[in-house]
Structure formats: structure tokens, C-alpha cells
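Before relying on records like the one below, remember that each one covers exactly one chain. Contacts with other chains, cofactors or solvent are not represented anywhere in the record.
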Amino acid sequence: MTSPDRAAALADAPAQSVESKPFELVCPAGSLPALKAAVDHGADCVYLGLRDATNARNFAGLNFDEAAIANGIRYAHDKGAKVFMALNTYPQASNPELWRSALDKAADLGVDAVILADPGLMQYAVQKHPKLRLHLSVQGSATNYDAINFYREQFGIVRAVLPRVLSLEQVQRVIERTPVEIEVFGFGSLCVMVEGRCALSSYVTGESPNTHGVCSPPKAVRWVETPQGRESRLNGVLIDRYAPGENAGYPTLCKGRFDVGDDENYYAIEEPTSLNTLELLPQLMKMGVRALKVEGRQRSPAYVAQVTKVLREAIDHSIANPHRYAAKPAWMASLDQVAEGQQHTLGAYHRPWK
């Protein structure tokens, strides 16, 4: 079967014994309790990863072994939800077999789709597991329809997750020019870079999310109390300094405060804030977005439960009342409680200068 034929067949076929929906809520599962919290509170799909460098949230204490994945798949499928496995880092020349073995495990365990970034791993999947549904990860950095259509033609990709740097107008143009399902981020921490192309962390720690699955690896993170205030450091490099009572964010280079000029100190690259698309739900559905993704596999089951519950209610309300939909203040307040910096933004979706 050629890749285009494979893509068409997969797109027409239902997920493994799980009914597809016209607009899916895709939620993070960094652990089995988080997976159950997402499914119990209304997620249509959950995404997870193995406990190694094959996924972009490779933090100690997170992720799944094979037994936990099998348990999670049973739990999700029993309740009508799908399970995606993220194998979304790039195989390294020293040990590409780790990624191939992970893909074999995904197929053997019966996941509903794998989320891939590397073309070589996609080709391996096509050759070894032709019936496995393939999604293009946000780490694949496909920001235009030509790139997405290339992945479909070559590897049979049936869904693509867009990087969080596109405006709504740009998302619309992509959807109009590709048959591939489009998934966008709807809530969670932002990334100022085009995902898959960021190596900032490696300049300070030697490890980046694209190669080791970690942005600012925990082993390099330190918070230090000093006479000038609490300091956050990454591998010894000062990222930020906080006043008494001020929330101390996780130290990443893109979200640090820096001395700019002679007397200015501010978030020169990106502020710590969360994307929140509650007010855009009817617009996203109307333009043909296939799925809304929540960021946060590194977050707690309580976070997953709270965000999933709010978004499930909001999505259902938008489907039932598309012309009378309005984001409820209680929804916004609930999501702001778990937002980064307890504040939200529409990010690149809303660009007032366009």
C-alpha cells in the first residue's frame, strides 16, 4: 500500500474499537493517575510517553512502563477514550534502536496512534507497522500546508499538531489546503520557539528537548536564597531573581528576566503565562480544527482533572450553542488557578497588528 493510499485508509477507518468524534479533546497523561483523571473528566484522547529519551517530557518520576501503558489503554478504551503515544524526539546516531524499539512497543501494546517528529522513524513505522496510525508531532515543526502534505504523501500522516506560533488566519489557510486532520494547542504553557527547532537549553545544560526530551533538565535546576532575593539558576546560570512573596517560575532560558540596557530588567523573550483558547472554541470548530490539545504531561493529576473538566464543559456548550456561546467567568477563573503565572493569553492566535 502506498503512503497516500495508507493515509486514506487510516483516515476512513475508526480508531481501534474507539469511536471518533468531530472535535476531540486531547489531554496529557504523565502518569497512570493523570490518565485516569483525564478520562474520568471527559477527555476523548490522552497522550503519554515512555520513561526514556524517546518523548519530549523525559522527567524523573513521570511517564510509563509497558505494564502501566497496558493498564492505561484498557482503562481508556473501556470508557471510550483513545490513547496516543508520543515518540516525538529525534533518534540519536549513537542509539537509534531505542526509538525503533519504542515504536515496536507502541504497536504491540495497541495504542490508537503514535506521535512522531523524525522522518526516519516514520519510514520505519510505514515499513514495520503499516496499520499503525501516525500523527505528526508539534516537534516536527510543520508550520505550512506544503510540509504537512509532504508528510502525508511520504509517510501517510493522518493528523498534524501545529506549532504554537501561527495566527488563526494562518491555521485557517493550513486547514483549507490539506486533507490531514489538524490538532492545535488549547491550554497550557507556551513555547516562544517553533517547536522542534529550539536548542536554547543545550547552550547552558548540554541537553535540549529535541535530543534528550528535556527543556531545562531538573538536575540542572536550583533555587537559592540570597540577600538580594530568591534566585533560580540553570546549571549555575542566573535565570531570574524574585522578590519576597513573588511566585518563582521554573527556570527556562526563554522565560527568564534579563538586564536589558542600563536600567531595565524584564522578560525579554517570553513571559510565564498560559495559552487559553476558551473564547475561541466556536471559531476553531467552525474553521475545521479536528482536536484541541492540552499541554502538561509534567503537571499533576489534579491539574489534568481541573483543566479537562472545564474544557469538556466548554466544548460541549460550544457544540450545543455555537451562536450563543460565551466563555463563562467561572471557567476562566478555574483555568487561571492552574495557569503559569496565574495568567492567560491567546498567544499567537491573536495578533493585533495583523
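The longest strand covers residues 181-189.
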